[in-house]
Design goal:
about 5% strand
């Protein structure tokens, strides 16, 4: 019966053996390959790996630009260029340069990149040509073709120039010849795969390899890939009706005396000639300047950019058409001798100006355009040109209206009489005219109230460029434009309302006059976009005290994940000047921010509000501020505890021993929590500390703690079901969260920050209720709960003092109240805390521990509260596990808590209490170490933790004689 199984087992064994042999063989070959492997050739830094740089083949810069302010570096397309109108102006040729960081103008100002220099020169000479700089860092010919398809094409260019940098060819070869992702991963990890794939044999390591002779195969393949991309781009451009050309930039080593022959340029020129593509080699233009034309291996200096712009203009490569100078000479002829002499470089400007004023009245549109250009060059000293140019704004031809507006803008403030006509042109049907009118108005000093209404009208335009201009100009008018605040508030709802030239910036410049916008700005402060949030915070700060209603939102923003938001939020709080406990606490937390700029901003804000003395510690001396309520609470506890004990005895409010769970010798009063609560409240009131107000550490905390105390007191006196007690605690926790907020996230070691989202409310309430009951569980020995609670409160006070937090005196007052209560609670106790005390104290400690653990991002660093409350947490965890395993109710009391177990092992009560309190103190010192801001504090905390840990272990040692006695008794 078993015979048929043998072949199957044999086959399986053979397969396993074969696989093992094959794996061993591969391992041996891999080892040999690693042994023989030579260092891999390095690829030059300027040859980019697209996947590692961009995680793809294409990228642009993020930008919310709309054109204002005009000097913004990146436009709405994410390019380092001025903003261009989507609508093509009539009579204007559009010239697009596609390139990489050389065309972008890396390491020089944007206005010095050669496309911008060319645009400026052509405009100054009156050429109706608009130049686009479509380039970014690391782009190669593949990205430039994609940029044409996605960006440049919609502007309907007349000519496209591909600016070739020689590192384009290695980048195309290295990136496009790379194997698929799985093989590439193996290539990074296996020497055998690297030997088989032979990536170095396919990758070009530097531009210098393009000049080797004979040409390596990888270089030949790189050129072929490059030529394929050029052909594809050329075909797309020509299908769109535009002309196509190529310019080639050299590397710096090519202008040196020992430079190799320009084989790469010759190879590209030969290809272009074959394909019918016009090509310009810029090496001859840059060679005379030598290395001064470059700032590094290939990027141009300012002088190099000027040489390139000059070479492009003089090469005949660009179809520029006649300039205004040529048009003016043709229009004037012999009828304008003054203009002819001015064009020749001599003659009187007044004579030429008079003739030009007559010229712009002619029927010939080209003559009017050329005359407007000339009048802008001459200026308007006698005041004769402005009326003539203003009349051009009503011309039926778009080029004439545009030329008139541009000329008025060139005249600057002397063209102020034309402002009403320019305001009217803001609603022109043609986008180019509207933009020129806006630029012309921006060159003048606008005045309220005349400017406000037309600017408000422009603020509602569908043209984002006009909206940006209107918002920027209204901001420049400041408080004088207060009537525009409603319109600017509505503009905040638009996506660009928070841009550099947006409504938020305008409102910030208006200051207190923009108070009506505060609710909308608060909404912006709560938005999802970080840039929108920090700009809203900045604007609220500029509004100042009139933005007081935004203080709660700014307090929350002081813990925002975005560092700019935090910095502007604390600055705004200082400018608004509301000195409330939440503000004080937010500034204290911000002063220990991990980002130095935010911490510095918080210190300056604290100094401005009088919370810090300049160059010194807290102005109010936080140690004294915390010591005052602690001492007051301790003194009140000394005074009130005997009275509470006496009242309990007279009224029969006693805890009577039952021989099972309650094994104390005689009946003891059990409402000590009332004494602690009265001492805590009296300590805060007597110290007159500003923490008595709102938040976790003010009235809300005291009110919630009081509710928990009352339900505990009812249980002490008459008995309350566990469900009812938990329900009241949950309601108190809910009320505290509703007033002070909940945790937003939890910071876990080695994991990071976890956003709680919809779990924030239930988890915060669970923490408060759970810790309240966990603290109640350790109240089973005289002095244990009060002693460990006093230690935890002291640690929390130290944590708060380290950051200057305003809740630190509350923790200190709680520690003082417990310290004053301890003489009546230590063994043998004459007064118990009772449920009223243990539940309410645990609730307060849980709330303060969360406050002390919350970091700059609003997340609880979980290690701090866990260590501060380590004893009740550990005991509760063991009790829950024990009761779940035994399938008993979680609310059923027993004598198996940590302190009971230690007593059962033969330790006496003082040793158990002292040891557990010392262990809690040790954990507390570790918590202080984690939260401490100063290295010396961390050192002292660590030393203290070790000392207390050793003390606790010594107190909890297992005495041999007692253990032996217990064993004998057990045997007997």
């Amino acid at each position: 019966m078993n015979a048929p199984e043998a072949p199957r087992q044999s086959l399986a064994g053979n397969i396993v053996l074969s696989l093992a042999v094959f794996a061993g063989l591969l391992g041996a070959i891999e080892g040999v390959c690693r042994r023989l492997e030579k260092p891999r050739p390095q690829v030059a830094d300027y040859i980019w790996d697209w996947q590692r740089k961009w995680d793809g083949e294409f990228y642009t810069m993020r930008s919310d630009a709309n054109g204002w302010p005009p000097w913004e570096e990146f436009n709405a397309d994410g390019l380092r260029d001025r903003t261009h109108a989507p609508e093509k102006p009539e009579g204007v040729r559009r010239l697009v340069f596609l390139g990489d960081s050389v065309t972008l103008g890396d390491q020089i100002a944007a206005i010095h990149a050669y496309p911008r220099l060319l645009d400026t020169e052509l405009t100054a000479d009156g050429h109706a040509v608009e130049v686009f700089n479509v380039a970014l860092w690391g782009w190669s010919t593949r990205q430039e073709r994609i940029a044409y398809e996605r960006i440049a094409r919609r502007y309907r260019p007349d000519q496209v120039v591909l600016a070739v940098c020689l590192n384009d060819i290695p980048e195309l070869q290295n990136n496009l010849s790379r194997p698929p992702g799985a093989l590439a991963a193996l290539h990074d990890r296996s020497a055998l795969v690297r030997r088989v794939v032979n990536a170095p044999g396919r990758e070009i390591g530097s531009v210098e390899e393009l000049f080797e002779s004979p040409e390596p195969e990888r270089v030949r393949a790189g050129f072929e890939r490059f030529f394929g991309e050029v052909r594809a781009l050329r075909d797309e451009v020509r299908r769109d009706g535009a002309t196509f050309a190529v310019v080639v930039f050299p590397f710096r080593f090519q202008v040196a005396a020992s430079a190799p022959p320009p084989r790469a340029q010759q190879r590209i020129a030969s290809f272009c000639e074959t394909e019918g593509i016009r090509c310009l080699d810029l090496l001859p233009a840059l060679a005379p300047a030598g290395e001064a034309a470059f700032v590094d291996y290939d990027h141009l200096s300012v002088d190099g950019s000027r040489l390139v712009a000059r070479a492009l203009r003089g090469s005949g490569l660009l179809a520029l058409g006649p300039g205004a100078r040529e048009q003016l000479a043709a229009a004037c002829g012999a009828a304008c001798p003054g203009v002819a002499e001015w064009l020749a470089g001599h003659g009187h400007a007044a004579d030429a100006r008079a003739e030009l004023v007559r010229l712009v009245e002619r029927e010939d549109a080209d003559a009017r355009v050329a005359g407007a250009w000339a009048l802008a060059r001459l200026g308007d000293e006698p005041g004769a040109a402005v009326p003539a140019l203003t009349r051009l704004l009503e011309d039926p031809r778009e080029p004439v209206r545009r030329a008139g507006a541009r000329a008025l803008g060139a005249l600057g403030d002397s063209a102020r009489p034309a402002a009403p006509a320019l305001y009217a042109r803001l609603s022109d049907t043609r986008q180019g005219v509207r933009w020129e009118a806006a630029r012309a108005l921006s060159s003048q000093k606008l005045e309220a109230p005349a400017a406000v209404r037309p600017l408000v009208a422009a603020l509602g335009s569908d043209d984002p460029y006009l909206r940006g201009f209107a918002a920027w100009s209204l901001g420049d008018l400041g408080e004088a434009a207060a009537e525009a605040v409603p319109a600017l508030t509505q503009a905040l709802a638009r996506e660009e309302g928070y841009g550099r030239g947006g409504a938020s910036s305008a409102l910030a410049k208006m200051g207190p006059a923009a108070a009506a916008a505060v609710p909308a700005l608060v909404e912006g402060l709560r938005g999802a976009d970080g840039e929108r949030r920090w700009k809203a915070a900045r604007t609220l700060g500029r509004i100042g005290p009139a933005a007081a209603e935004a203080v709660p939102a700014l307090v929350a923003a002081a813990s925002d994940p975005h560092e700019y938001v935090r910095a502007h939020a604390v600055r705004a709080l200082a400018r608004i000047g509301v000195r409330s406990p939440p503000v004080v606490d937010a500034l204290a937390r911000a002063r220990r921010d991990r980002v130095a700029a935010v911490a510095k901003e918080a210190r300056v804000a604290s100094q401005e509000m009088g919370l810090l003395a300049a160059g010194r510690g807290p102005a109010a001396r936080p140690g004294i501020a915390a010591a005052a309520p602690a001492v007051d609470a301790q003194l009140v506890a000394f005074a009130v505890t005997p009275w509470v004990r006496g009242q309990a005895r007279r009224r029969g409010w006693l805890d009577v021993p039952d021989g099972h769970l309650k094994r104390h010798a005689a009946a003891v009063p059990r409402i000590g929590g009332v004494a602690v609560f009265l001492a805590l409240g009296a300590g805060l009131v007597a110290a007159a500390h500003p923490a008595w107000g709102g938040g976790w550490h003010g009235g809300a905390l005291v009110a919630a703690m009081g509710a928990v105390l009352l339900v505990g007191l009812a249980d002490d006196l008459r008995g309350v079901s566990p469900v009812a007690k938990v329900a009241v605690q949950a309601i108190a926790a809910f009320g505290l969260c509703a007033q002070a907020g909940t945790l937003r996230a939890v910071a876990l070691p080695w994991v990071g920050t976890i956003d709680l989202g919809p779990l924030a409310w239930p988890l915060t309430i669970l923490w408060l209720v759970g810790l309240s009951n966990a603290f109640n569980m350790i109240d089973g020995m005289d002095g244990l709960a009060a002693g460990s609670g006093c230690v935890s409160a002291c640690v929390l006070a130290l944590v708060g003092l380290g950051s200057g937090a305003s809740w630190a005196p509350v923790a200190a007052a709680l520690a003082g109240a417990l310290l004053g209560f301890l003489p009546w609670n230590r063994g043998p106790a004459s007064l118990f805390l009772g449920d009223s005390g243990s539940l309410s104290i645990g609730f307060a400690l849980a709330a303060l521990a969360l406050e002390g653990a919350t970091n700059r991002a609003g997340a609880a660093e979980i290690a701090v509260p866990v260590l501060v409350l380590a004893l009740p947490l550990a005991d509760a965890a063991l009790a829950i596990g024990r009761r779940v395993r035994a399938r008993r109710s979680l609310f059923l009391a027993d004598r198996e808590h940590v302190h009971h177990l230690l007593l059962a092992r033969g330790l006496d009560a003082p040793s158990v209490v002292g040891g557990l309190v010392a262990l809690q103190a040790s954990c507390g010192c570790l918590a202080w170490l984690l939260a401490a801001a100063r290295p010396e504090a961390k050192l002292w905390a660590f030393a203290g933790a070790v000392a207390l840990l050793l003390l606790g272990l010594w107190r909890l040692r297992r005495p041999p004689e007692r253990v032996a006695g217990a064993a004998e008794a057990a045997r007997g």
